[in-house]
Each structure stands twice: as C-alpha cells, then as structure tokens.
Amino acid sequence: MWFDGWPQILRIVLIGAAAYAALVVCLRISGKRTLAQLNVFDFIVTVALGSTLATVLLNTDVSWVEGVTAFGLLAGLQLLVAWVCSRWPRVRGFFTAEPALLLAEGRIRHDAMRRNRLTESELRQAVRMQGTGDLSQVEAVVLETNGKLSVITSSKYGDGSALKDIRGIEALGDDDRRSSA
C-alpha cells in the first residue's frame, strides 16, 4: 500500500507530536541519569522508549494515553532501579557491569581481555587515542561500565584513588615509578 488516506497521515502527525512532547517531558522529569552515558540497563530502557514511541505513532490500536502510560512506566522503573542501585551497592551488580582492569603497569591482562571479548588491537588503539605510544607508560586501562576504555598513564596516576573500586587493582603496588612521577 502506498497511501491509505489523509486521516492516517493526520493521526500520525498529531499523535506523533503529542507523543514526542510527552516523551520529552517524561525524560526531563526522570532526570539526567536517563540521558547520561548508558550502561546496559539504561540502554534497554532507551530502546524500549523508542520502540514505544514508534508503536504509538504507527499502531492505531494503541492510544496516546496508553503510550504515555508506557513512557511513565519505563521511566519510573529506570528511576526505581537507579534508586535501588544507589542505596544497595550489592544489587548494583545485577543491573550494571563492573569496570574491568585490562592493563596494569604496562602489562596486558589477557584473561580480562578474553572475558570482555576485546582484542589487543582495540586496547592499543585506545592507548594511542590518548596520545601515548608506549604501553609501559600506561599504568592502567579500564573497561568502564558504559563500554568506554579509560587510559591512565603513569604520569597521571597520582595516588590511584580513582581506581579503588576496580577488581584486580590491588595488583598495582606502590613502586618507585609512582613516587617519582
């Protein structure tokens, strides 16, 4: 079918504008976390919101009120999960991944690389993108919960307090390199 008539087009325009406005309001109410860098749970909620918007736009069996209710439910669940995760750190692991130490003191941790399905080439690329050409000058590379790679060079390591919550970081000892940096 190429064209079903103007009433369907008008419905899409009117309901689409109203649903879009409702989604924007819902996202503003739910706070910055919904729009922050996404972990797996946030990504799922974002995809579900987009799918709901598409359904409201194109499915005549779904009313605008039902769509807005779905937006509210998804945003509310996302807020609930964020609240629970901030109150009970043990629950956080169920919804979000832990950061992973991929390189420590210039040495690649192959077990962590395999576990996170990353290649040495991807790790070296991340180091190069930080302007470093020598892995021995890198104190740590961390795969963050949002999938980004953080590269900490020896000169920027400091006391290492930003890495305190990363499993395996205890492998980094207080050596002369850090105390002289």
Structure described in brief:
With 181 residues, the chain is an alpha+beta fold.
Structure overview:
With 181 residues, the protein is of the alpha+beta class. The chain folds into two domains: 90 residues; 81 residues, bsu07140 like domains (CRO Repressor). Helix content is 53%, strand content 10%. It has a four-stranded antiparallel sheet.
Q: Kindly name the structural category.
A: alpha+beta
List the secondary-structure elements in sequence, H or E.
Answer: HHHHEEHHEEH
Shape: elongated
Counted by DSSP, the helix tally is 7
Uncertain segments are 175-181
Largest sheet, in brief, is: 4 strands, antiparallel
Number of domains: 2
The percent of residues in helical segments reads: 40-55%
List keywords for this structure.
181 residues; alpha+beta; CRO Repressor; 2 domains; four-stranded antiparallel beta sheet; 4 strands; elongated; disordered C terminus
Layout of SSEs?
Elements lengths: L5 H25 L9 H19 L5 H24 L1 H7 L4 E5 L2 E2 L1 H6 L4 H10 L8 E6 L5 E5 L22 H5 L1
Antiparallel strand pairs: 1-2, 1-3, 3-4
Helix pairs in contact: 1-2, 1-3, 2-3, 3-4
